[in-house]
Design brief:
The protein is mostly helical. It has one domain: Four Helix Bundle (Hemerythrin (Met), subunit A). Helices cover 81% and strands 0% of the residues. Helix 1 crosses helix 5 and helix 5 packs antiparallel against helix 6.
């Protein structure tokens, strides 16, 4: 696999480009949540004036024991997926920096980067669409794979 990636990106360090790409991938579930809330009129639509209050109201509804609709649950999972991505971005950025500073071969860095970006896309999809506890374990496995890519660099 490393040879294929080296042929595709012979002298390009895509790990640095992955930093803004990872932020973009992390924001996608948030934008999807906004679309769902706005287009379906959930709680009157997305409140861009106070977006945290919108999410807090959904969380309060869930915390009070009231049943959330499938749509409301999807919106909350989208917000959680975004939060997870933003929380983990500094870890990925540090891994890229340490990999660069410790002279990890470019082909290896590119391979880890493509794995990281691919797993982040899969993870976001699973986070937003998973509705059962049993299926959530697959999301956990993908998250562990994300962390493994970082461990290889470090």
């Amino acid at each position: 696999m490393s040879q294929i990636i080296q042929n595709l990106f012979p002298e390009m360090n895509i790990s640095v480009a992955s930093l803004p790409a990872t932020l973009l991938l992390s924001a996608l579930p948030h934008w999807y949540s906004i679309y769902l809330a706005q287009s379906n009129g959930v709680q009157g639509g997305w409140s861009n004036q106070n977006p945290r209050a919108f999410v807090a109201r959904l969380n309060a509804k869930a915390g009070s024991g009231k049943k959330l609709t499938d749509l409301e649950e999807t919106i909350l999972r989208g917000q959680s997926a975004q939060q997870n991505g933003f929380e983990w971005w500094p870890v990925w950025a540090a891994a890229v920096a340490f990999g660069y500073l410790s002279n990890v071969p470019l082909a290896d860095m590119n391979q880890y980067t493509l794995i990281h970006l691919s797993m982040r896309m899969v993870y976001n999809y699973l986070y937003v669409t998973t509705k059962t506890r049993r299926a959530s374990y697959l999301r956990t496995i993908v998250f562990q794979a994300l962390k493994c890519g970082i461990r290889f660099i470090l």
